[in-house]
Prior knowledge:
- By secondary structure, the protein is mainly alpha-helical.
- The chain has eleven helices and no strands.
- The protein has helices at residues 2-10, 12-30, 34-46, 52-65, 68-81, 86-98, 102-115, 120-127, 136-149, 154-164, 169-179.
- 35% of the residues are buried.
Amino acid sequence: YKDAIAHAESQPxxxxxxxxxxxxxHCLFKTKQYSRASNKYSEAIANEHSFPLAVFYRGVTQLAxxxxxxxxxxxxxxxKSHPNFxxxxxxxxxxxxxxxRPHDAELAFSEVIEIDPNITQAWVxxxxxxxxxxxxxxxxKDIARALETQPADSQNLISLSQLLVSQxxxxxLRLAExxx
Length: 180
């Protein structure tokens, strides 16, 4: 960050323009104007001094737009220069799931967990691609780990319920009722 700050301070006008583009893009994203947000992120990326954060956020908007392949490309681009960018790895896993690549998604979520095993949503997301891969017991362990991290999280209980529904509908119902 120190290098980025020094670079920004040496060319204030360039980074004021970049900052405005990012701010507008974030506001558009938050108001669910994903196409316009993606365009603003692309404008920021076109700047030769662009930070990878603009590429990351464009990938997030591409996910929201259902443009999963483009999102995948953006997350991979970010990870080339910042291989431990946890949010980029996590979103890469989401893009891979949407593209019907559960094995690759499982690997992406495994990398997130290796970097920070305390991210509850990473455990839940890690469980999801394991179902189509017939790894039900591993998926259950992932959800159990998520529940250890945040026991009262209703999304974790719902995810566990979804995983168990095919094997034990009554237990699934009890877990779903707990979550509500």
